[in-house]
Amino acid sequence: MRDLLSKADFEVHLRKMWADRGFPIENGERVGVAISDLVAHSMQRNNALSLPSLDLWISIFDECLSWFISLNTLVYAKRDKTGEMTDFEKSVTLILCKIIADGTAIRHLILLGFDTASRSLLRSVSEYMEVLVALLHKPEFSEDFIKSNTPEGAEEFWRAYLRGGKIRKRVTLAWRDFFDGHEDTAEWFGNWGRSSHVILSGLTHPSFAGGFFTTLTPKEKHVDENWLGIWGDKSVLSVDTVYIFLKFAFPVLLLSRQFPFEGFDGSLAMPILYDETDEFHRHVRIGRDILASVVLSLSTDENMRHVFPEADWSFLPDDAD
Question: How far apart are CA 165 and CA 147, in angstroms?
């Protein structure tokens, strides 16, 4: 078995390279900031920060992630394992796994104070949720998605179904079928989540805004402190990050409302019959309506002023653009 370089080996080699250049370093010392110490202090500092509005939205976020976990439990973990999974089941399972993993990572990044980084990840997971909506609307779409299991296949799938907002046409079609041809309503709901793509893309791709919001992170009330967002600083802007996630999750909750209990027998290896005594079954069927209702209620003009705090930008100079 080959020997692998250890951390101790690397540190010895690093000290040797500095010594060879005339700058010896004592054991236990280093050049530059100790990132492990910086990270430890940042975590301690963020844990002590009080952002009640963000706490509320993290709680709502947790409910959404928990629902996705219950759905994935039914589709994968509690399935009848005597038969082979269909392409539809494989596709839905892996998409749900990606949504759950990335959603959990977004939650970590928010609480560690890296909201801009979380939005870069949100830009990606939003497309997974749109693909999930398309799959639930037209299960045969899984025949194309399953072919994205190689780098070449993934690129081809992106070019054919994602590039240039192509997947959004499928999402809008799902809304049209849901609203029975009411074009204006379907178009409004179809654009509800995707309207945030401009914001997410602006922070994901190199931009002045990306660097700005990474460095300066507003709170509800500014406190003068010698600390920058680049080291991790919880921000009131994360409320909007969670809200954007929920807007993309909303069609998953509302459209194909009977999934996986009704209307999908032809796409599942074995039908999943609703069992009211099973907590996961209840969570998926009843919980989706509760969660969808919460998301909608958060979006009303009357309620928005109670759940969306104003950011305090008073620390910016008066002539800042």
Answer: 20
